[in-house]
TrEMBL record:
Source organism: Achromobacter agilis
Catalytic reaction(s) noted: adenosine(1518)/adenosine(1519) in 16S rRNA + 4 S-adenosyl-L-methionine = N(6)-dimethyladenosine(1518)/N(6)-dimethyladenosine(1519) in 16S rRNA + 4 S-adenosyl-L-homocysteine + 4 H(+)
Major site of localization recorded for this protein: cytoplasm
Keyword Membrane: no
Phylogenetic placement of the source organism: Bacteria, Pseudomonadati, Pseudomonadota, Betaproteobacteria, Burkholderiales
Gene name of the record: rsmA_1
Similarity annotation: Belongs to the class I-like SAM-binding methyltransferase superfamily. rRNA adenine N(6)-methyltransferase family. RsmA subfamily.
Protein name as annotated: Ribosomal RNA small subunit methyltransferase A
CDD domains in UniProt: AdoMet_MTases
């Protein structure tokens, strides 16, 4: 088969290091009957070893040339190729207890992670390769400079673990950054949840919009009605100092005060 030229617009960097591939497959540890969806299979570096462990795999691929290549390489009874942008895919169509894996294009990693949150109830776990600095933000704890809007939003829905780093030379072409692997497991239904997801998103986005400022300044017109003491939040704290649970309680308090709409 002819050599595929990596396409910049799709953020393509193909994994070529077999020892890294083996480590990822070992981390996922798929069982024969698992429902696995691979995002961005590319040149099938992960696809092939996953299929050795699975009865069937679904692959979501945006590049039509690569999608055609995959259909030629693998029997459709083993591999279903969904030719689409993962950002537009309804993941509920694949059933429940999904195990989602992929070397995610770095140029759409955050939007894709937020898109997948919509389908978290259908997911058992997710294993992704991403830029290391993105994963460091995903797993960061309050008080750390890496703690961000991404940290709060994802930690409100998943338990996450950074597994290991992947050097640039494991890819062709090599990216300019170090990558890493993250495991994401959706939190159970009994987790602490905001009364309004929309209000929670609004509060977190506003808090981190000026992360160097004190919360009482960033929240401005809302600040006088925030029950700071009851929430155990200092008005002089900055966005990165507040835990996920406190953000949930803060947004609930603002909904209760009528400053934000539920919904």
């Amino acid at each position: 088969m002819s050599q595929h030229q990596a396409r910049k617009r799709f953020g393509q960097n193909f994994l070529t290091d077999e020892s890294v591939v083996e480590s990822i497959v070992r981390a996922v540890d798929p069982a024969r009957g698992d429902t696995v969806v691979e995002i961005g299979p590319g040149l099938s570096a992960l696809t092939r070893p996953l299929l050795e462990r699975l009865d069937h795999l679904t692959a979501v691929e945006i590049d039509r040339d690569l999608a055609a290549r995959l259909r030629k390489q693998f029997d459709e009874s083993r591999l279903t190729v969904v030719e689409a942008d993962a950002l537009t895919v309804d993941f509920s169509q694949f059933g429940g207890a999904l195990r989602v894996v992929g070397n995610l294009p770095y140029n759409i990693s955050s939007p894709l992670l937020f898109h997948l949150m919509t389908w978290a109830d259908h997911v058992r776990d997710q294993h992704f390769m991403l830029q290391r600095e993105v994963i460091d933000r995903m797993v960061a704890q309050p008080g750390s400079g890496d703690f961000s809007r991404l940290s709060v939003m994802l930690q409100s829905r998943y338990r996450m673990h950074k597994l290991f780093d992947v050097p640039p030379e494991a890819f062709d072409p090599p990216p300019k950054v170090v990558s890493a692997i993250v495991r994401m497991v959706p939190l159970p239904a009994e987790r602490l949840r905001p009364v309004s997801e929309r209000a929670f998103e609004t509060v977190v986005a506003r808090a981190f919009s000026q992360r160097r400022k004190m919360l009482r300044r960033v929240l401005a017109d809302w600040a006088p009605q925030v029950p700071w003491e009851a929430l155990d939040i200092l008005p002089t704290a900055r966005a990165e100092d507040i835990s996920v649970d406190r953000y949930i309680r803060l947004s609930d308090a603002l909904v209760e005060a009528g400053l934000l709409q539920a919904g």
